[in-house]
Design a protein that fits this description.
elongated, single chain, 0% strand, 10 helices
């Protein structure tokens, strides 16, 4: 019913009414489809700051990793590097602060860190990317996905010393795993 009413109002170009209806609807914290529709509406209106405000509320209502990554994709398309970096930083800070709740799996955390590190590498910020991996591995030392991501990063962007160090670290982990299984 909400969707049909919103479609009618938008087809009549009652943008402010549609915006107020979405705002009221999202204050009830509906499912992700309603939030995505609100974001799509604001993108159609080219209201970039409005989209940022929606995403800041959206990630609090639905703190899944895919929500954060949607916001990052939006900032990559319509924002600049500082906006994108701030969204990534906010996502990492949220994951660190809420890690006690066990909301995200190791794979999701690794996916976020890998995405951030690859984005930093695409910005030619290789030191930041490497530091991000190092800090993430210190924070989550048992996360094998992060360690594999660091190895791939070092193979692609590292120097000879860092590659050798990373490969020896990986072999050490494999040997420790074999020893613990036996």
């Amino acid at each position: 019913l909400w969707y049909k009413y919103l479609i009618v109002e938008e087809s009549l170009n009652n943008v402010e009414i549609v915006r107020s209806l979405y705002t009221k609807w999202c204050s009830l914290e509906p499912g992700v489809n309603a939030w995505n529709s609100f974001v799509d509406f604001e993108i159609r209106q080219k209201n970039w700051n409005g989209v940022r405000e929606i995403y800041s509320k959206y990630v609090m209502a639905h703190p899944q990793m895919q929500t954060w990554l949607k916001w990052v994709r939006f900032e990559n398309r319509h924002g600049n590097t500082e906006f994108t970096r701030s969204v990534y930083s906010l996502a990492i800070d949220t994951v660190v602060n809420l890690q006690n709740l066990q909301i995200w799996s190791d794979m999701e955390v690794a996916k976020l860190v890998n995405s951030f590190a690859h984005w930093e590498a695409a910005q030619q910020e290789y030191e930041r990317s490497s530091a991000l991996y190092q800090i993430a591995i210190e924070k989550w030392p048992s996360n094998q996905f992060l360690k594999a991501g660091l190895l791939d990063f070092e193979k692609q962007f590292g120097d000879i010393n860092s590659i050798e160090e990373t490969i020896s670290y990986k072999r050490k982990m494999e040997y420790e795993t074999i020893l613990s299984n036996n």
